[in-house]
TrEMBL record, chains A, B:
Keywords: Oxidoreductase. The keyword Oxidoreductase applies. GO terms for molecular function: oxidoreductase activity, acting on the CH-CH group of donors, NAD or NADP as acceptor. The keyword Chaperone does not apply. Coiled coil: none annotated. This is Enoyl reductase (ER) domain-containing protein. SUPFAM superfamilies: GroES-like (SSF50129), NAD(P)-binding Rossmann-fold domains (SSF51735). InterPro entries: ADH-like_C, ADH_N_2, ER, GroES-like_sf, MDR_fam, NAD(P)-bd_dom_sf. Residues 17-341 form the Enoyl reductase (ER) domain. It holds the Pfam family ADH_zinc_N. It comes from Physocladia obscura.
Length: 343, 343
């Protein structure tokens, strides 16, 4: 008999999430009993790594409030990207001992339908790769960067890429992928330290602090040949400024509009540019891309992202009981780089 | 010796175009001399039909004013879609006697490089079809409708299509193509007569007069299952209303934003929907589609558009000297349906 600890969604936060919104419960757990009770086409998993990500705050809401992701269920475990080992399988797709990546409930042992599993990762592709890399450099934020920039942005060497929120988990990877596609990469962010980080560590061609410079003028200066791809994370005035500088047949993958989440809604006045420049503006969620593009993403990253030249930081917390604190710390910006939890 | 009459761009209109902006000049013309002087890879054409279209007003401007199409050159002939017979060819692609469709100068006899020719139309595809049909039902406005709705809109039977400016040259065809793809088709327009026309002659499922009804409420009533494809012709408040009703993975081909041409720029406040609903908003110009999609368009129209069930009206004026009056009349809304000129 062992112990299974789970983290449940206890209450809906008003404003910032806090520890009272999480409930950590431990109960005795018998693996044989759980294995015997496993539903058809399912797997029982011993979870080894979990990822916490800012989008989860958006799922901590009432279910009747519409959003692009489903609300977490009160009284049930949180869920998120995780890695684990299959200890029992009734699925033809997975066998005991497989290491798998999926959307997993926050618990030491979890039973999930096979559809919750994104992929088996103990393949011959990269046998020496630590499993948590699939939640870090190869995780969801990096796949988001790839899906938006490569699949939707269709980069061509010599083009100019602008990415807003460039020092964020997605933006950092967007810029680094962009450089490897031969793009001129320009980023915006909110502090001088981040500007330095983007240019001197990540290899951006240029970056600027939007709190110090008028966006339109600074962008025009840093993008003398216009903008071919705008990886959109912020919306509002930045989008309006970018539209004045986009080139014909420009692409705008829309990953986020963080300036617009409060619902105030900045009125973008120059959408006519979308016709005059034949621009494609395309909202996307990374979850739509796993089926068709995750293999290609991993292949590209194995070739270009694992040679040590790709900058990626992560912070590891230990123990499932520390997931709530790690999540709250991440939302407060206390972590450096990607926040992971080792179970 | 015969006479060649041409229509030249004489002056830039302020406001509406008028006869003083056009100059009709006639000069003696020797076909043999013109044929002998033909440049390499060119064709000398006897023009038989010309099309006048509203977009041409946008080309009657100073060249330094940026737009999506090139300005006409003062003192030179206007140009537009036309049909003619090749009387001399130095091109390997076209032979004497070929009937061709292209962007032709307004004149009885014109010499153009082979690149100006869109296609040879005296094929076996539809031998009995009057040549002017390639400027009418099979012309640029219909191809615009097809490119936006079929190529970009990717319609699936059962989906809901909304088209604004639905009684216009493009909108009418959008709706009729949409019906043949099994869509629920809803249109907006500016008079009750047009509403009647859309529903009772063109087969729209529903239509409304935007001068009489609040757009958002009326659209919600007429599109109870939301909107999957919005064929955008007007922009501004209509786009904002549509964004509130778009379904997940909705497509918005942007053909025009007629409410925004004056540059005032209505601020669209709910662009966040582009992410939450994973919407693709795509500005396009039909000229980008000829190379890859014109064959498929003609094939589709031969199969579905020429059986007599497709509603299409046209008005024919006679003689090249009447092109300016036909253009001005069209801009004043005096024509019924597509305005063509027979030379």
């Amino acid at each position: 008999m062992t112990t299974n600890t789970k983290v449940l969604f206890k209450s809906i936060p008003e404003g910032a999430a806090n520890l009272a919104n999480f409930e950590v419960v431990s109960e005795p757990f018998n693996i044989q009993t759980a294995a015997a009770a496993l539903q058809p086409n399912s797997v029982l998993i011993k979870v080894t790594w979990l990822s916490v990500d800012p989008y989860m705050r958006g799922r901590m809401r009432k279910p009747e409030v519409a959003s692009y992701s489903a609300a977490f269920t009160l009284g049930q475990p949180f869920m998120g990207h995780g890695v684990g080992i299959v200890v029992k399988s009734t699925s033809e797709k997975f066998a005991e001992g497989d290491v798998v990546l999926g959307i997993l409930p926050w618990g030491n042992y979890v039973s999930v339908p096979e559809a919750a599993i994104t992929r088996k990762i103990n393949t011959a592709d990269a046998p020496d790769l630590p499993h948590e890399t699939y939640l870090g450099l190869l995780g969801m934020p990096s796949f988001t960067a790839y899906a938006g920039l490569v699949v939707l942005g269709k980069p061509k060497a010599g083009e100019t890429l602008f990415v807003s929120a460039a020092a964020g988990a997605v933006g950092q990877v967007v810029g680094q992928i962009g450089k490897r596609f031969g793009l001129r990469v320009v980023g915006s962010c909110g502090t001088d330290e981040k500007v330095d980080h983007l240019v001197n560590r990540l290899g951006f061609d240029a970056a600027f602090n939007y709190n110090k410079h008028p966006i339109r003028e600074k962008l025009a200066e840093l993008c003398p040949n216009g903008i071919d791809i705008y990886f959109e994370n912020v919306g509002g005035e930045t989008l309006e400024a970018v539209l004045t500088l986009m080139n014909v047949h420009g692409r705008i993958p829309v990953c986020g509009m963080i300036s617009q989440y409060d619902g105030a809604g900045y009125g973008v006045k120059n959408l006519f540019s979308v016709i005059s420049k034949r621009i494609t503006l395309q909202g996307f969620l990374v979850s739509d891309f796993y089926a068709d593009h995750h293999d290609a993403f991993l292949k590209w990253m194995f070739e270009h992202g694992l040679d040590g030249t790709f900058f990626y930081e992560q912070t590891v917390a230990n123990g499932i009981e520390n997931v709530p604190a790690a999540f709250i710390g991440m939302m407060d910006g206390k972590n450096i780089g990607k926040q992971l939890i080792k179970l």
